[in-house]
Amino acid sequence: MIELNHIKKTYSKGLVTALKDISFSVNHGELFGLIGPDGAGKTTLFRILTTLLLADDGTATVNGLDVVNDYKQIRNCVGYMPGKFSLYQDLTVEENLHFFATIFGTTIKENYTLVKEIYQQIEPFKDRMAGKLSGGMKQKLGLCCALIHKPDVLFLDEPTTGVDVVSRREFWEMLRKLKKQGITILVSTPYMDEANLCDRIALIQKGEILSIDTLAKIIESFPKDLYAIKSANIFKLLQDVRSYPGVGSCFAFGDALHVTFNNSSDKDVIKYLHSKDHTDVSMKLITPSIEDCFIHLLSPSI
């Protein structure tokens, strides 16, 4: 449904690189996640795929249509929900939905079954101005407007940023139900914990794809044993572990350190930390998280 081949994009006359040789594909009916921090290139990529921006180099197709030559057809068969709320804030909920249905030559009644479950949650506020809605309600309205013309592909650019935890959970449940209806979904997010909600993910940073696979396979590819080390003085622990000659990598994760070693045994590390006056050290082998994998891919040599 979506295919990119060697997409490149720069800004400021080539001084700022937004995308570096991006290539991947998204299958029909797949819920595909593009995961990375702000500034990674996610929005630029979405704008190219939705025909709002031209790439400097490379080719891309959506639903078998070229993003440059077939842009008119693509705009009729995709739904796009940008990261920033972009509906008309001085129109009511119902007026916004009616407006977008009219633009695409359809009606709310014709495709109501597609948005019914989502729209019913905001229908009690159908006469409220869109600008007066809460973040979660704006999110639901934006999704309804992106779906009202029954698109084949749905692009969602950081749809859960800035909304509460409950709204995030509800939103992903809606996406799972839309996927069951055969809609291909490409969603971007800076939240690593949302990776396990996608069929496949692409980790992106500074315009480069670091890895593309299922979450399970990306975690399986983590090359070393990973340990969680705890002590009462976490700051001193961080300094001492990083000074240990056998350490491969060491990063703080909440109240623990996530650490890899080159060759050292557990006893060697514990003995070393005791010599540094850590009397309450605990250390255990753990399964890497997606955050651990992302950090490793950024610094594969450690």
Low-pLDDT residue spans: none
Number of domains: 2
Mean pLDDT score, rounded? 91
CATH superfamily placement of the largest domain:
P-loop containing nucleotide triphosphate hydrolases
Rounded radius of gyration (Å): 23 Å
Helix content: 25-40%
List SSEs in N-to-C order. EEEHEEHEHHHEHEEEHEHEEHEH
For the largest beta-sheet, the strand count, sense and barrel status come to: 6 strands, mixed
Number of H- or I-type helical stretches: 10
The CATH class assignment of the largest domain is Alpha Beta
Query: What is the assembly state of the chains in this entry?
Result: single chain
Distance between the termini: 37 Å
Overall geometry comes to elongated
Total strands: the figure is 14
In what range is the share of β-strand residues? 25-35%
* CATH fold topology of the largest domain: Rossmann fold
Give the CATH architecture of the largest domain.
3-Layer(aba) Sandwich
Class based on secondary structure composition and strand pairing: alpha/beta
Strand order of the largest sheet: 6-7-8-3-9-10
